[in-house]
């Protein structure tokens, strides 16, 4: 299926493209963004929908989107009772989106909708996810420098070379979203999370426009949260299906080292080379053995919990089914549907 030009309609009434737009106190920009997206999508000839997610705004943003939805059935609104964060907003928007391609965009007008066609063209080349790269950023140095450090750390941890993980302008094939479980601050790691699931990630340079309204919500707290979330994502993607390899491996090293120390001290005691009870090395060796045993126990416990909560099919992602396997699955689905009828 080609995304860059006119797309054949999907089954049912699903649009070609969905735009998920979280916003928080950005009422000045919402109508302008709506108009720009509509103009660009209509020029491309694609059907589309806009899903605005109000992340607990206290300004007039909700009313702006309600008026847009009343005038245009392609617009919908999801409103949180309070501010839950961008990850929660994206997760809710992705769950509501129906398009074959789902875009995420920030509502501050710094993302330029004229880039939509370039994203679709990149998907045509075989990518599953296309991430924007703000080559020229209209942000102060206290925002760009931490971003560079963050991008370098994420690339190093996951072996994924992207220049701008933080860019909110992204395009996804619909099937990739089923692999996402966003919470906390994990929206910054979406390409890394999907890369770990085997999807093809690409990036394209995009125009980053200067902020027209309001001010950035970036703060120093996000640096700390980002570092902690990086550790979380690294652990869950690399060791989520094999916790014993992490805890057990570390525990085994500690136990072997501690056992070696205790053996050495035992030999000294047996040879009558003085008392060992008051030597700090004895306490250190005992601590290593105890800590190693506990870590191995934690790893085994993790494996037991994993075995009860996750099936083998959930540990990997199947990209394609064809032949007899696909035919049998289709028959099962038809039989299930007929039973419900």
From TrEMBL:
InterPro entries: Glyco_trans_2-like, Glycosyltransferase_2, Nucleotide-diphossugar_trans. It comes from Parerythrobacter lacustris. This is Glycosyltransferase family 2 protein. CDD domains: DPM1_like_bac. Pfam families: Glycos_transf_2. Keywords: Cell membrane, Glycosyltransferase, Lipopolysaccharide biosynthesis, Membrane, Transferase, Transmembrane, Transmembrane helix. SUPFAM superfamilies: Nucleotide-diphospho-sugar transferases. The chain crosses the membrane at residues 246-269, 281-306. Residues 18-178 form the Glycosyltransferase 2-like domain.
């Amino acid at each position: 299926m080609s995304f860059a030009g006119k797309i054949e309609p999907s089954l049912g009434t699903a649009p070609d493209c969905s735009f998920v737009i979280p916003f928080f106190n950005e009422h000045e920009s919402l109508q302008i963004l709506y108009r720009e997206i509509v103009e660009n999508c209509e020029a491309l000839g694609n059907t589309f929908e806009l899903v605005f997610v109000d992340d607990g705004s206290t300004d007039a943003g909700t009313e702006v989107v309600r008026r847009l939805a009343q005038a245009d059935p392609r617009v919908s609104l999801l409103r949180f009772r309070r501010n839950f964060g961008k990850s929660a907003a994206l997760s809710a928007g992705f769950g509501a989106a129906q398009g074959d391609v789902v875009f995420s965009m920030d509502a501050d007008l710094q993302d330029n909708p004229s880039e939509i066609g370039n994203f679709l063209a990149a998907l045509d080349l075989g990518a599953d996810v296309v991430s924007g790269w703000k080559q020229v950023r209209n942000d102060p140095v206290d925002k760009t420098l931490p971003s560079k450090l963050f991008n370098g750390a994420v690339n190093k941890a996951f072996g994924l070379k992207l220049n701008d993980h933080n860019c909110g302008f992204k395009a996804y094939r619909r099937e990739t979203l089923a692999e996402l479980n966003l919470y906390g601050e994990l929206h910054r790691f979406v390409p890394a999370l999907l890369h770990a699931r085997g999807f093809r990630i690409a990036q394209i340079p995009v125009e980053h426009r200067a902020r027209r309204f309001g001010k950035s919500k970036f703060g120093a707290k996000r640096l700390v949260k980002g570092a902690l979330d990086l550790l979380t994502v690294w652990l869950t993607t690399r060791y989520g299906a094999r916790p014993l390899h992490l805890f057990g491996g570390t525990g085994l090293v500690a136990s072997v080292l501690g056992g070696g120390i205790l053996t050495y001290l035992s030999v000294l005691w047996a040879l009558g080379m003085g008392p060992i009870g008051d030597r700090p090395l004895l306490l250190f060796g005992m601590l290593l053995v105890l800590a190693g045993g506990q870590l191995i126990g934690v790893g085994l416990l993790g494996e037991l919990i994993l075995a009860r909560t996750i099936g083998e099919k959930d540990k990997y992602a199947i990209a394609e089914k064809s032949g007899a396997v696909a035919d049998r699955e289709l028959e099962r689905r038809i039989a299930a549907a007929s039973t419900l009828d």
